[in-house]
Design brief:
Structural class: alpha/beta
Shape: globular
Largest sheet: 7 strands, parallel
Distance between the termini: 55 Å
Order of helices and strands: EHEHEHEHEHEHHE
CATH architecture: 3-Layer(aba) Sandwich
Mean pLDDT: 93
CATH class: Alpha Beta
Radius of gyration: 18 Å
Helix content: 40-55%
Number of strands: 7
CATH superfamily: NAD(P)-binding Rossmann-like Domain
Low-confidence stretches: none
Length: 265
């Protein structure tokens, strides 16, 4: 059978936001989907809806509920994918994990400021886990020449906001990992880019205390007159996953309709 019949996308953070939209869009464009997500029982019915939609698109769906930053869960997913499709190769790996601590670095009361364990957890989940997934997928022979890796970053890597310090550090570290992996994966024919979306309404972004203010600023700046949607980002990733995009490598790519380049209007 053609290798096209075993073309998988692994989506880390597949049950909502950017991950959900990209999983669905890639499935419409011929990719089988391996989704890793962390959901409580109440939100699992929505995950099943995503799985059903992927299968309606004629693609396979292999979803695992668990912490994508956990070493044992990572190994379980890789083993499960190889069992699901022994000829699988990972054409797309998307890192879209948004699980971190939103606390000030310094506060009047010690209980209101971030702890070492919270800081370490935020960076491990939102940045360092990308490296560990790449390591294990390479070792398993699932990342191959032509594979594309995308890591979701944000303007938080460049600017500050109240309670966003640990996440800002994680996004900066994530972009650094993307640069280093670009160097180390280039001779394998594997590309990696960070995607910097504009302000987007997702379950994660809406947990940021200053989200509404961020949204209003984005609306005032974006020349389109609207904020970014998860579908905007998903479609961009589909385009960047095409074979002819092989020379786009090691970048932080704005997918924001021009939001970043315009001052307040």
């Amino acid at each position: 059978m053609s290798q096209e019949n075993h073309r998988w996308a692994i989506i880390l953070g597949a049950s909502s936001g950017f991950g959900e939209a990209t999983a669905l869009e890639l499935s419409r464009n011929g990719y089988d989907i391996c989704g890793v997500h962390l959901d409580r029982r109440a939100s699992l019915p929505h995950v099943e809806e995503i799985v059903v939609e992927i299968r309606k698109n004629g693609r396979k769906a292999f979803f695992v509920n668990g912490n994508a930053a956990d070493e044992e869960k990572r190994k379980e997913v890789i083993k499960g994918l190889k069992a699901e499709d022994p000829d699988a190769h990972v054409a797309v790996l998307m890192h879209s994990l948004a699980f971190g601590t939103l606390k000030k670095l310094v506060a009047e009361n010690a209980e209101d400021q971030i702890t070492a364990s919270q800081m370490n957890m935020t960076l491990d989940v939102m940045a360092h886990s990308l490296v560990y997934w790449v390591q294990d997928l390479l070792r398993a022979g699932l990342l191959v020449k032509g594979s594309r890796i995308f890591a979701m970053t944000s303007s938080g890597s460049l600017v500050v906001a109240p309670t966003y310090g640990a996440v800002s550090a994680a996004k900066a570290a994530l972009e650094s990992h993307v640069r280093q992996l670009t160097l180390e994966l280039a001779d394998r024919g594997i590309t990696i880019n960070a995607i910097r979306a504009g302000v987007t309404e997702t379950p994660s972004s809406m947990k940021i205390p200053s989200y509404e203010a961020m949204k209003q600023v984005a609306l005032s700046r974006n020349p389109t007159g609207r904020i970014t949607t998860t579908q905007d980002v998903a479609r961009a990733i589909v385009v960047l996953s095409q074979p002819d995009a092989y020379w786009i490598n090691g970048n932080v790519i704005n997918v924001d309709g021009g939001e970043m380049i315009v001052g307040t209007r």
